[in-house]
Amino acid sequence: MSLTQEKKQALINTYQVHETDTGSADLQVAMLSERIQQLSSHLQKNNKDYASRQGLLRMIGQRKRLLGYIRKQDGDRYKALIAKLGIRG
After folding, report:
1. 70: in domain
2. Which of 19, 30, 41, 76 could form a disulfide with 15 if both were Cys (CB 3.0 to 4.6 A apart)?
3. How many structural domains is the chain composed of?
4. pTM summary value
């Protein structure tokens, strides 16, 4: 259920803050959002997969904490990121 190398590289190229960025908060939120989307579609087909559901909730919590950090640092960057990802803020 992890991201493929090609998908991860595409996310890095899209959301990196500077040229050598591989772990900024913006990028982490984008990767978590992609994994959450994949896991959500898996759970729609396999609704009794409780272990994956627990992992999904953990990822959602992590993304929420990272978004809170970004909002506290720079509100405009936060708004642009949630608009670009298409998630609720």
Report:
1. yes
2. 30
3. 1
4. 0.92
Residue type, 33: S
Q: How far is Cα 34 from Cα 28, in angstroms, rounded to an integer?
A: 10
- Write out the two tokens for 71: 């909002």
Residue at 20 is within a domain = no
Own/partner pairs, 33-41, CB within 8 angstroms, 24+ separation: 33/63, 33/85, 33/87, 34/3, 34/7, 35/1, 35/2, 35/3, 35/59, 36/60, 36/63, 38/1, 38/3, 39/1
Q: Is 59 domain-assigned?
A: yes
CATH at 38 = 1.10.287.10
Residue range 40-88, pLDDT digits in tens: 999 999 999 999 999 999 999 999 999 999 999 999 999 999 999 999 8
